[in-house]
């Protein structure tokens, strides 16, 4: 029996801090790994006023700006789900891909479940760092994006813009996946 076709979706987020449910997810960027032109980006209104200044500095997004420019979380997550549904081929399932996927997936999962009572990605994700570790037998320390870059030479770079980072991650995934396939 054949399962659904797996469609890899690169997802990146920017947050106001590391604690799911306490700190806000401020932006989401996503694209199809093997067709990055199919893209999605959205800003969300904060769910609290709690923030870690360093997290805000990294993205350059303030809570005030997100409050004004962002959408309510329920509407944002509904739009994200609709984008997935509209772009997913028939008999296919989205597979969440991220660089440090546990962090990004935990926020995405929380927001989907809190606001829509479902997560179209299910309960798992593929982490590019772990995939790279398996492909190269390197240490966990050597799975930083800068180390991966030196090994696979992507043309894109991350800049803490969620959509740009999602596209960068998509390229990293393709390159690292090829390392696994060439063995």
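-> sequence recovered:
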């Amino acid at each position: 029996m054949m399962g659904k076709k797996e469609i890899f979706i690169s997802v990146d987020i920017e947050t106001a801090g590391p604690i799911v449910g306490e700190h806000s997810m401020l932006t989401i960027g996503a694209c199809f790994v093997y067709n990055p032109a199919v893209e999605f980006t959205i800003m969300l209104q904060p769910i609290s006023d709690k923030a870690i200044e360093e997290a805000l500095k990294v993205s350059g997004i303030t809570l005030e700006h997100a409050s004004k420019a962002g959408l309510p979380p329920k509407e944002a997550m509904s739009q994200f789900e609709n984008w997935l549904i509209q772009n997913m081929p028939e008999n296919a399932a989205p597979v969440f891909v991220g660089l440090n996927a546990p962090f990004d997936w935990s926020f995405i999962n929380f927001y989907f479940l809190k606001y829509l009572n479902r997560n179209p990605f299910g309960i798992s994700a593929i982490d590019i760092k772990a995939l790279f570790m398996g492909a190269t037998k390197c240490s966990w320390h050597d799975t930083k994006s800068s180390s991966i870059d030196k090994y696979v030479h992507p043309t894109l770079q991350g800049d803490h813009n969620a959509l740009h980072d999602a596209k960068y991650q998509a390229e990293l995934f393709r390159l690292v996946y090829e390392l696994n396939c060439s063995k």
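The mean pLDDT is 96.
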